[in-house]
Amino acid sequence: MLEITSAFLYALLTNRILLVDRYKEIADLFCEPFPGTSWLVPSDFPLNNDEFSQTSPESYGNMLQNKVFGGNTDRSLAGNRPPYVYLHLDGTYGFHDKLFFCEDDQQFLQEVSWLIMRTDMYFVPSLFLIPAFQDELSRLFPEKDTVFHHLARYLFHPTNNVWYSVTKYFRSYLAKAEKRVGIQIRIYETKGILQRNGPFPHILNQILSCAQNEKLLPEVSMAEGAAAETQNNRTAAGTQNNRTIAVLTTSLSSWYSDQIQKKYDEQPAVDGITVKVFQPSHEEYQRSRNKKHNMKALAEIYLLSMSDELITSGFSTFGYAAQGLAGLKPWIMFKSENHVMPDPPCGRAMSIEPCFHQAPFYDCKAKKDADLGKVVPYVRHCEDVSWGLKIVNQTHL
Questions:
Q1: What does this protein do (predicted)?
Q2: Phi/psi of residue 40, each to 5°?
Q3: Tens of pLDDT along 251-270?
Q4: Is 332 helix (H, G, I), strand (E, B) or coil?
């Protein structure tokens, strides 16, 4: 979602038509966004995205590195304009690939008929640093930190199967709660090259500390017999007067949600609020190309976006998508080090925008490395990724 949103905005800014690669899952996840036409690349299109890589002769970065343009810095000679250019904008991209974000290079690319882009990043913040785009971006987004919120709601419409899962789960478990708290849990503890999903008690403590410190979930009573007394009080008062918080957790492991529920069952909330914890799935490990797995993941992103309050895991694009759709500034749980809970356990996001993890740090005009988080007041470094960039609302500053 993040990468398609980025490509769509770039197409808007450069007066291009966006066509999306016909990878096998997209039709199972999203409806066509534009009535009467398709945004999928035609099946008989002569160019295949799988044919291109960073070292392909058609790669823009490779062309620059190999001086295909004869060293001409403005790259404006008509004879040097290829019919199409491949843009390698994924996490492995190099210095010459990143020159895509320079104004001179954009002027050249504007003259190329077809651009084939491979990206796995939310590169919108760097578009805001290209002077030629800034006026149009200001007109499109007077509130600059709402780019993903508006474009994602415009572009992405879950298929009937996905949306049925969302609405059925919401009505069954979440709709009647007085308050809904979403907790998105992504584990980055590693052993060798394998990601381990725990369980990690320090992560559980971090979740509870964040939720209770920020008053998203109530404190629990430590008194003996509190559970029985609370249950008797609820029975006497009748179920109609119960105040309920529904906690929606998303994680590959069910252990964290089970432990949170257990805590509130054994030690009820001090103010008598009932806390119910729900988790739609626990797949144990990520299955990136599995259709059912991806449909469940998309449904859970939309369920999280229906929360009143949101806690996310830093560095997680899953959480970015949920907060952007919701229009909520989440509480971000910081990455732990050496199995020790960070202090503080979480912090409030500056904006609802996702973070560009692999943002370039090259000043195109000065032709040297620079801190691009200090160029304009509405692009800052991310809370969870110190080298990344995100868009913020100037009123926040």
A1: May be involved in cell wall biosynthesis.
A2: -85, 145
A3: 999 999 999 999 999 998 98
A4: strand
pLDDT for 247: 99
Q: Name the token pair of 128.
A: 């805001």
Selection from 132, 107, 117 nearest residue 85 by Cα: 117
Question: Does residue 230 surpass a pLDDT of 70?
Answer: no
Q: Are 206 and 272 in contact (CB under 8 A)?
A: no
Say how far residue 384 (Cα) sits from the centre of its chain. Answer: 12
Set out the domains of the chain in order of their start, with CATH numbers: 2-141 (no CATH), 160-349 (3.40.50.11350)
CB atoms within 10 A of CB 223: 11
Instruction: Kindly state the DSSP code that residue 328 receives in the 8-state scheme.
Output: -
Assess whether the previous peptide bond of 199 is cis (omega < 30° from 0): yes
d(CA 245, CA 357): 33
pLDDT tens readout for residues 123-148 = 999 999 999 999 999 999 999 999 99
Cis peptide leading into 33, omega within 30 of 0? no
Residue 358 and residue 390 in contact, taking contact as beta carbons nearer than 8 Å: no
